[in-house]
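Bench notes, afternoon.
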Amino acid sequence: MGKLRIAVRKFDPFESALQKLWNLFCVKNDIQIEAEMIPLELHDLYEETITKEGLKNGNWDIAHINTDWIFDAANEKAVLDLNPLIAENPPQNYPEGWHQSLLHLQQINNGTYGLPFHDGPECLIYRKDLFEDSTEKENFKKQLGYELHPPKTWKEFTQIAEFFNRPEENFYGCVFANYPDGHNMVFDFCLQLWTRGGSLLNTQNQIDINHNAAIEALDFYRTIVNNINAVHPKSKYFGSVEAGIAFAEGQAAMAINWFGFASMCEVIEVSKVKGKVDITELPSDENHKTASLNVYWLYTISTGSKHQKLAYDFLRFATTPESDKLLTNEGGIGCRKSTWNHPEINATIPFYHKLQMLHENALTLPQTPVWPKVAELIDKMVLKAIESDISSQKLLEETQNAILQII
């Protein structure tokens, strides 16, 4: 029968969890087939599965596809509509076992194109031990004139990051993921936009980033990431994984990153901050409310796979409550409500139950086949903003004109 080939998002917890799940699946079902799991970085994963049509031509049987790409993948007929298989043999407690916000992005044209794999909206991750330290609190109050607490506004965020910035100790106020991979800086720009009351869409539901809230968002972001008195100097080389590891190694007081990187601090061996971390909602502009971003990873089956039934049987197994819990204990983020509220998980990761709160404020990116191209343009715009002194207004105008060429 040959091998089952799985395209895996490169990240140690994903790789180890998937291997363990496959081994358990084979033992349980007395299956002798080998699964070849290939870990791929974000750009390579998109390239191999969608651009080079690896899902269509059967080069892969199963792939991790994130919700930024699923609309594209479904329209390209690269991923299988799971509805007939779900109707015949649904995953355990489907759909009630998941929060609705983890089920809707893969619902496209009355089809279901994936099952939730890994979750965790964006949040503010911070060192609670430092925020609760009496000496730090006293010094902060003397310097800034107000009580030290997780920042509610972006102004407070900057002040707190500057307060905690101690380069001589290889410790910084905050860490960002500024590596230009078409994702991290795009997400950061969206979060800055949304927490200022802005939107990616105009009243006609078309992508439009040429407006005042976007100027304010880009102005603030380019200023903060270039603030050498607040930010980890390696941020420009970090993707979200590297930024998450730097935080876990005790190199920063705050991070804006996916919930999974807070959770990781409690379970990975290299963590120096176990028991010292908490999460909360993102800061916002003084006149606006917080927001989060919900982008999640899916298990998908390729339309070109010759092993679709076996692949679906594995997906059913990999999404049971036990498997979801195993993923979490490996350092991923389980998607089931049962995992979020599990006493054992919350004993290990005390803030795990807060996932529900983050999902209540989580927004999503526009579902359009051109989004990956739009994201690339926004990514280049943010990078140019960080590396040049061209005005934000001009950069946004230029980028909006480029967007109009592709939509």
